[in-house]
Amino acid sequence: MKITEVGAVMTTDVVTAAPGTPLGDVIRALGEHRVGGLPVTDEEDRVIGVISTSDLTRPRPVRRRTRTAGDVMSAPAVVGARATVTEASWLMTGHGVARLPVVDDEERLVGIVTRAGLLQTVPRTDGAIERAVHRDVLGPALRLTPRAVAVTVEGGVVTLTGRLERRSEVDVAVRAAGWLDGVVAVVDQLSYGVDDTRPRPPGVEAEESVART
Fold first, then answer.
1. What angle do CA 12, 15, 17 make, to 5 degrees?
2. pLDDT by residue (tens digit) across 129-169?
3. What single-letter DSSP state applies at residue 104?
4. Considering the entire predicted model, what is its pTM?
5. What b/e readout covers 120-158, taking b as 16+ CB neighbours within 10 angstroms?
């Protein structure tokens, strides 16, 4: 199963600004490098803010001094290099941004990922996601035939419907589908015959039949 991480699609050559960088220099950097925003970092390369063209044009009180990047930067939305491209896409959508600074385990800047970069790896159609579920989840993971589980996808939301033999298979199918690039959420409408996730009393082999919605 192919799970693309942010580290594989991020750009490592990142133009940054310091809190004290004059706004004139920020504007020139945005134009020269043809980017829509810059991470603002401290002396240890930790991301403390983001400054974008929208931050520069946002109306502010007349008396407020806006001379440096630190004056106009917004709170940063960052993502880890090991996060999936789907998780990065969720963050961008939730924060209404088109780029995210990428940080390491110590919160230091290691790159930047853009929405354009994510679109190169994330399936763009529901049909592509549906084919990926059949190909990369139901086949290799559980060795199920395509008819064993019905898969529908709408707006990146995957719905799995059907009945499997064991509860553990349901858990694997739902979790694995959620890992696929482009999947926004998974709706579990699967049922199972035996709950093999709970220990049974000695000598008890009765099969449970549990319906889940």
1. 135
2. 898 888 888 876 677 766 778 999 988 889 999 999 889 88
3. -
4. 0.57
5. ebbbeebeebbebbeebbbeeebebeeeebebebeebeb
